[in-house]
Specification:
The chain is an all-alpha fold. It has a domain of about 130 residues. The protein contains 3 helices and no strands. Helix 1 runs antiparallel to helix 3. The radius of gyration is 47 Å and the shape is rod-shaped. The protein starts with a helix and ends in a 47-residue tail after the last helix.
């Protein structure tokens, strides 16, 4: 009787063990399936993320290339603009030098002519000329500087004006006006004695004052300047 009960208990325990094993197997299978599912999901998300990263990386590279092209273009434009600006500054500098030379030469000729007239008047061959000054005093009524100021005035406006027919003072005004327009300055009606706002002084090193320093001097020389021919 006791043996029968023990066998019955053993069978019951075996059934419970089998049931637990089946349950454990099922749970393990479910767990592994869930893990696999999560792994697949992670792989898909990683692949999608990698695709998005690759896409963003490609866009970044394209933007970087575009930025480099823009920088290169901007540098070329700046270099060309600097060269043109330096060309105008060189032209202005040469014109100023020519103005100084011409004025000095004119004063020498005018003073020599005045001295000849005075000598002739002292010898009684002619009347005394009107007193003329050559020192540039402001209140002089007959200064040689008045003649020099006439060279700056513009005649009545005419079409098809030849640059070669202009005085050096007028050429300077033309260059200054072109320089101002090139820099996008507001258009103004300048008086015959006024100057557009461009540098009034150019150093020997080629740097301009009032508007900042330029880069190295351009290789173009004023000997080939179409404005001064």
């Amino acid at each position: 009787m006791q043996l029968t009960q023990q066998k019955s208990q053993i069978q019951t325990l075996q059934k419970k063990v089998l049931s637990l094993e089946n349950a454990l197997t099922y749970m393990t299978t479910e767990f592994e399936a869930e893990v696999f599912k999560l792994q697949q999901k992670a792989i898909i998300e990683n692949q999608a993320g990698k695709v998005e990263i690759d896409k963003l990386q490609y866009l970044l590279e394209m933007k970087d290339k575009e930025m480099n092209r823009v920088k290169k273009l901007a540098k070329n434009i700046l270099d060309q603009r600097t060269e043109v600006e330096q060309f105008f500054l060189d032209a202005l500098n040469q014109v100023k030098q020519q103005i100084l030379i011409n004025r000095k030469h004119y004063k020498q000729i005018a003073q020599a002519a005045f001295n000849l007239k005075m000598s002739a008047a002292c010898a009684g061959r002619t009347e005394y000329p009107r007193i003329r000054t050559f020192d540039g005093k402001e209140h002089s009524t007959n200064s040689v500087n008045h003649d020099l100021m006439e060279a700056e005035k513009w005649p009545s406006t005419q079409k098809n004006v030849d640059i070669r027919d202009l005085t050096w003072e007028q050429k300077e005004k033309v260059l200054r006006l072109l320089f101002a327009k090139m820099n996008g300055l507001a258009a103004r009606k300048y008086r015959s004695s006024s100057k557009p706002p461009v540098p009034d002084y150019i150093s020997d090193s080629g740097e301009m004052k009032e508007t900042g320093c330029l880069r190295n001097r351009a290789e173009k020389q004023m000997a080939a300047s179409p404005f001064l021919m």
